[in-house]
Specification:
single chain; Aldehyde dehydrogenase family protein; 3 helices; Ald_DH/histidinol_DH; 3 strands; oxidoreductase activity, acting on the aldehyde or oxo group of donors, NAD or NADP as acceptor; alpha+beta
Length: 91
């Protein structure tokens, strides 16, 4: 299991950011550690690629247009969600 854990280490080179919940060592084998990352660079593997594990990156955006641009900017159709204190216009 060390390979899976090291692949999901929030301090792993290429990921950046910091874990605010979970991470390596938060659960024992045979389970995979969920992790919530903040401050992750846009070009990070954690943001741009499928992690094949319970990994959540939190990215702040200024407005709906920026959120859509970021969602459409990747190579893959990764899952995403929007949480806001303001009600955004819906089309």
């Amino acid at each position: 299991m060390p390979r899976r854990s090291s692949a999901r280490d929030p301090c792993r080179p290429g990921w950046g950011g910091r874990a605010v919940a979970g991470g390596v060592g938060s659960v024992r084998a045979p389970y995979v550690e969920p992790v919530v990352l903040v401050g992750v660079p846009e070009d990070s593997e954690a943001v741009r690629e499928e992690t094949f594990g319970p990994t959540l990156t939190i990215t702040k955006v200024a407005d709906l247009d920026e959120a859509i641009a970021k969602a459409n900017g990747g190579r893959y159709g990764l899952g995403s969600a929007v949480f806001s204190l303001k009600r955004a216009p819906r089309n």
